[in-house]
Design brief:
Blueprint lengths: L7 E4 L2 E5 L10 E4 L2 H9 L6 H14 L4 H9 L6 H19 L6 H28 L6 E5 L14 H10 L3 E7 L6 H13 L3 E4 L4 H6 L5 E4 L3 E3 L4 E4 L2 H11 L3 E4 L5 E2 L16 H4 E2 L2 E2 L12 E4 L6 E4 L2 E3 L3 H14 L3
Parallel strand pairs: 4-5, 4-7, 5-6, 7-10, 8-11, 10-15
Antiparallel strand pairs: 1-2, 2-3, 8-9, 9-14, 12-13, 15-16
Helix pairs in contact: 1-2, 2-3, 2-4, 2-5, 3-4, 4-5, 5-6
Bound molecules: 5-S-methyl-1-O-phosphono-5-thio-D-ribulose.
Length: 343
């Protein structure tokens, strides 16, 4: 990962995506030639994590430049919670509109490709800034707990929460990482552990229901997770199971941090109650390792995300700095500064 690993590549007119459903056993790159290929990869979580979905969708628009509106709608309908998806698609539409206004239809694909490449690079740069801001919050010997996967695989590279972990580790401010396995699709045990192994950062895997016991023993000094969408008031939607960890953190006085770029903050969503929460196929809950693990007649509910109220979040670690409560003000001020700087 330190070598600039990205799960997304553009090569010879194709989008290559590292198929995350097959990790850690197999490293297979999917070749996407049509927006339908990208949409399918996003739906079945071959590419996942809010920033990675946004960048993959941007390249999906390049592949669908011939019928832009159809590609836009197709990609938008894949997953509802990660705001980076519509954020990227809307930017792509601005690129298209400007191209049309300039009468440069024949250049559309190339202009979209230039823009998608910029988005790709800017996400990695934003994550490195998040890492640099985040590491200052750590102290030597800290053990950190994380949920789901918010590493290089979930972004265009470097990662958000795991970017902070990597930066803290490199600065000698971290002892080890507790990794929640993250039922039902095991992003923690399959993906975060794979990344931490490659980074050679000490870590231990725990079942999600062990977090309380581990925190109660005083074995966790910091918690850091990523986000799929942060509302204007600082409420955070992230992988289901994040909210209980935040409640545990409050109970035991452990700082609960959320690491995310400004592109994950949705100023048009007032609070967590307004964030659409994806409900996935119940089959993901009643099956594990290709086998049914509940009686045939048992129905399951599979919420993919939950919402952590802003009051449980000690700080938002963003590419624009560490934002503290009250978040409505600190978020608005971060965007004002960014707009003034013209970025
Ligand atoms: O369903 P997933 O695997 O896409 O969910 C991913 C998460 O919840 C991540 O924590 C979030 O997208 C942040 S990724 C930097």
């Amino acid at each position: 990962m330190a070598d600039g690993f990205s799960p997304i590549r553009w090569s010879d007119g194709e989008l290559l995506l590292l198929d995350q459903t097959l990790l850690p056993e197999q490293q297979v790159w999917l070749h996407c030639r049509r927006p339908e290929d990208v949409a399918g990869a996003v739906r079945r979580l071959s590419v996942r994590g809010a920033p990675a979905i946004g960048v993959a969708a941007a390249y999906g628009l390049v592949l669908g430049a011939g019928d832009f509106d159809a590609a836009y709608e197709l990609l938008l309908a894949t997953r509802p919670t990660a705001v980076n998806l519509c954020w990227a698609l809307d930017q792509g539409r601005v690129v298209r509109d400007r191209c049309v206004e300039a009468g440069a239809h024949t250049e559309l694909r190339q202009r979209l490709l230039n823009w998608a490449g910029d988005l790709h690079r800017e996400d990695v740069e934003a994550n490195r800034r998040i890492g640099a801001f985040g590491r200052e919050l750590f102290e030597e010997g800290d053990r950190v707990l994380t949920h789901c996967n918010a590493g290089a695989l979930a972004t265009a590279g470097y990662g958000t929460a795991i970017g902070v972990v990597e930066a803290a580790w490199s600065a000698g401010r971290l002892a080890s990482v507790w990794v929640d396995e993250t039922r039902p699709l095991l992003q923690g045990s399959r993906l975060t552990t794979w990344e931490l192994s490659r980074l050679e950062i000490p870590h231990r895997l725990i079942t999600d229901n062990s977090a309380g016991a581990i925190i109660a023993r005083g074995w966790v000094q910091k918690i850091v997770v990523g986000a799929d969408r942060i509302a204007a008031n600082g409420d955070v939607a992230n992988k289901v199971g994040t909210y209980p960890v935040a409640v545990l953190a409050a109970r035991h006085g452990v700082p609960f941090y959320v690491a995310a770029p400004l592109s994950t903050i949705d100023r048009h969503t007032a609070s967590g109650a307004d964030i659409p929460i994806e409900e996935r196929d119940a089959g993901e809950v009643v099956h594990a390792f290709g086998k049914r693990i509940a009686p045939r007649e048992t129905e399951a509910l599979n919420l993919a995300f939950d919402v952590t109220p802003a009051e449980l979040v000690a700080a938002l670690i963003t590419d624009a700095g560490v934002l503290r409560p009250p978040y409505r003000e600190s978020i608005a001020s971060a965007f004002r500064d960014r707009d003034v700087a013209g970025r």
